[in-house]
Amino acid sequence: MKDYLWYNRFSSVDGSPRRGEPSIAEIEILANDNANGVLQLSTDSVVVSEDYVGPVINVTRTAGAFGTVTVKFQTIPGSALANVDYSVTSTDVILYGGETSKQLPIEIINDRIPERNETFLVRLLDQITGGAILGTPQEAEIMIESSDDPNGNFGFGTSSQTVTEPSDGQERQLTINLVRNSGVLGVVAVQWEARLNGM
Ligand SMILES: [Ca+2]
Ligand SMILES: [Ca+2]
Ligand SMILES: [Ca+2]
């Protein structure tokens, strides 16, 4: 990039100013280093909840912010899968002149499925237009927190049950179901106790 400064140089002879020679000087100011910017991710790790709505991660532009630049990125599925756990509406990010930050078009998909923590990667590619260069970090891990009670939530199948008292010396067995709602991942143990008259 070149910036030009033109100016007229006058000299004065006998008090009557006139234009001297040379009358015009051209000064070329070389562009500063990375005038179009250095592009990188705003962080190298993000933790979001499954119901999070908003910017997940940004491209930031440091050094210069001259002109429009674009950068491509890709996501690399891990335990989180594209179009199941997250979606990407475009693989390009555009920063216009003067813009120093822009969110990546990534959305977290909310569902009712019980899941444990899941991750995927975001990587900026060295496919940049507009004269910017790639900085660091170029890669980030996005973790979607466990959702919808992956190990289950527990309750009794009924809140009250009536039984007749057994005759003297007899026993009667009660069956009260414990119900595991939502997720059924993993082995869980539930503690319980019996109280007489709620005491
Ligand atoms: Ca999932
Ligand atoms: Ca999910
Ligand atoms: Ca879920």
Descriptive overview:
With 199 residues, the chain is mainly β. It has a domain of 107 residues: Immunoglobulin-like (Sandwich), CATH 2.60.40. It contains no helices and 15 strands. The protein has a 5-stranded mixed sheet with strand order 4-13-11-6-8, with no helix packed on it. The chain is rod-shaped, with a radius of gyration of 34 Å. It starts with a strand and ends in an 18-residue tail after the last strand. The N terminus is likely disordered. One calcium ion (CA) binds next to loops.
List descriptors:
five-stranded mixed sheet; disordered N terminus; four-stranded mixed sheet; Immunoglobulin-like; 199 residues; binds calcium ion; mainly beta; single chain; 0% helix
State the oligomer.
Answer: single chain
Architecture (CATH level 2) name of the domain at 38-144: Sandwich
Summed over residues and divided by their number, the pLDDT gives a mean of 89
Radius of gyration: 34 Å
Distance between the termini: 83 Å
Q: Give the total of beta strands.
A: 15
Task: Name the helicity range.
Answer: under 10%
Class computed from helices, strands and strand pairing? mainly beta
What form results from the Cα inertia axes? rod-shaped
CATH class of the domain at 38-144: Mainly Beta
Largest β sheet strand count, sense and barrel closure: 5 strands, mixed
CATH fold title of the domain at 38-144:
Immunoglobulin-like
Strand arrangement, major sheet: 4-13-11-6-8
Low-confidence stretches: 1-12
The share of residues in extended strands comes to over 45%
Fourth-tier CATH superfamily name of the domain at 38-144? CalX-beta domain
Number of helices: 0
Q: Which ligands occur here?
A: calcium ion
**Element-level helix/strand string:** EEEEEEEEEEEEEEE
